[in-house]
Amino acid sequence: MGEYHKPVMLAEAMQQLAVRASGTYIDATLGGGGYSDAILSREPSAIVFGFDTDPAAWRYASQRLEKFGERFVLVKDNFANLHDGLSKLPILKKEGAGGWLDGIVYDLGVSSHQLDTTSVGLSYRVDAPLDMRMDPRLEISAKEVIAEYDESQLKQIFRTYGEEPYSGPIARKIIQARSERKIETTTELAAIIVKGIREDKKNETLSRIFQALRIEVNRELESLSESLTQAVDLLRDGGRIVVVSYHSLEDRIVKEFFKTESAPVFGADSVEALKARIDLSSAKLKLLTKKPLTPSTEEIERNPRARSAKLRAAERIKNYG
Question: Is the pTM of this model over 0.90?
């Protein structure tokens, strides 16, 4: 089948997920099926529901995981729609709204396969149509964003999603260029962005702008927030969430979500005093990673794209109330 992508921090993710016999899991970012394969291989009675919107991932992962039979279920939906995606499956009609899932794992960002696919146009290194939709059913592509957003909107997404210090000048260059001709390919856009940029800064500037466009087109940060909220509701007591992220925007969302939903850490003799001052009834999670885990030196050497990865994990708990 050829290589799709390498799952990052796989051993660490499996350790934090603590796969149970007869457990039910969600692989929220199916991709090439690496995490699903690991879960299903570890426990021969486990079941995995794999979410993805990429038709290439559907084909690849389905073939790879065919050996597990009905223990793997493909869900052709975005992880922002966990409840809806699962509710459409006849196999889950009996499960109800929530509290039955043993774990969910997210491997955020973009796979090597997607970066190298010319039809998607995610990389400035590949000459491709300016699209960036990881779900081809989405209405707005990067081409529409570049053609239709005004200067202030472009500046805002470059600054917010790309953390690009020269968002304003780059937005102005794009507005000027599109007034002269349509911008339709990744290489055309890249050539406009790097005008006037120092040679040693070009790659990092392009990376930030292309990241910002991809996040905007695919609503990545909104989808992550929506998905995490649903995931907590779906977990049974002791069920776990494991998230591998690749840039500060994603990691910040996960960190703040876990912090907001988790119980404060305190000694056994201080519970009553804390209850008098803090509403503990809404706490849903226990943090498993006080600080994010990062890849080993050996893994980074094998897979340089793992360099920026951070793993956070949390466990569903009973409310204190």
Answer: no
